[in-house]
Amino acid sequence: xxxxxxxxxxxxxxxxxxxxxxxxxxxxxxxxxxxIAELVxxxxxxxxxxxxxxxxxxxxFSGQMDILFLDIQMEGLNGIDxxxxxxLRRGNQxxxxxxxxxxxxxxxxxxxxxxxxxxxxxxxEKRFMEVFQKAGQKVLxxxxxxxxxxxxQTKKKTYTLEKSKVIYAENDRKKIEIYTSNEVIEIxxxxxxxxxxxxxxxxxxxxxxxxxxxxxxxxxxxxxELDNGGRIYLAKDRYREFVSVYMEFLKKEAVGNE
Length: 258
Description:
Elements lengths: L9 E2 L10 E5 L3 H12 L6 E5 L2 H6 L6 E5 L7 H12 L6 E5 L5 H6 L4 E4 L4 H22 L2 E5 L4 E5 L3 E7 L2 E6 L3 E4 L3 H8 L3 E5 L2 E4 L3 E4 L3 E4 L4 E3 L5 H17 L3
Parallel strand pairs: 2-3, 2-4, 4-5, 5-6
Antiparallel strand pairs: 1-7, 7-8, 9-10, 9-13, 10-11, 12-13, 14-15, 15-16
């Protein structure tokens, strides 16, 4: 079978940066919800605010959220458990979750679910503005990265695919299967060519697998867990390098949250 080289090249879209955010606020105190809604309305941009009075109501929401302000101490489902379930259901590790609470005792639990920031009640307007601007910048930066694209040339079709949509690639004999959130694309190429084309942010964890670091939710000595519920092999001789690369990736992510 003749194989076609994968025509992969980065594409950068010149799109105007948007300032409008979809902001979710979940707190069982109406006063706090209204205060946050008013503070958001006072920020630059035309932001939409969705209000929820419980963790259950938040989880029932299926719309888009760019930033989430989430109370911790709520009746029924508390904010920590709601955030953990939200991450699990949506597979969105990038959503900035900003916890709001009257107690400092939950700070370590908050960061266990990858909290962006932790605000104490009563809310300081100055501190709120600082955190909101940083969270908004994180969203915009992620959108910029998400617009980097790769061109995949198959025998019958040309795909222009956002790099961030690639979860992992698997080598299947003479072809490569590229797994995204909603489809599998088969191309005829070498894994090395694809790895070079995708570039930073991807790791060759096994000779048959290439993984997007953004979509990793956990790992062991021989397995990597992904946010789509899948698992792929991690070669033993690549384990130490993987841990080093992944820790450096997480460190950069954490710096972006400061």
